[in-house]
Amino acid sequence: MKQEKLLTYNSSQSEEKPQREKPKLKPVPGPEPCQHMKFLDCRQPIKRLICECFHCKQGILLQLHSNGEIHRLEPPCPNCSKTAIRLEATEVISVTPISSPWQNG
To answer: Which residues neighbour 79 within 8 Å (Cβ) at sequence distance 6 or greater?
Structure first.
């Protein structure tokens, strides 16, 4: 007499489906450094720019002349002596340190 095997079905043992891989997310880049800037007297021959030094965040008031041949200028920060900002103008007339309007305290 042959013994028959009884097959039982368990609902928790469903057919194995191939698992789909989760899509790989691209890493979100971190915030890039930026500078605060405020342009004043834009229609005047001598323009003013209030900004912060890119490196030390010192507030700076720049007076610029931009009627004539435009050059790429890199005025130094009066506080840390590094390039405060890169801009295009004819010449930088003055660089004056001020308290930064964007820093608390």
So the answer is: 53, 56, 58, 97
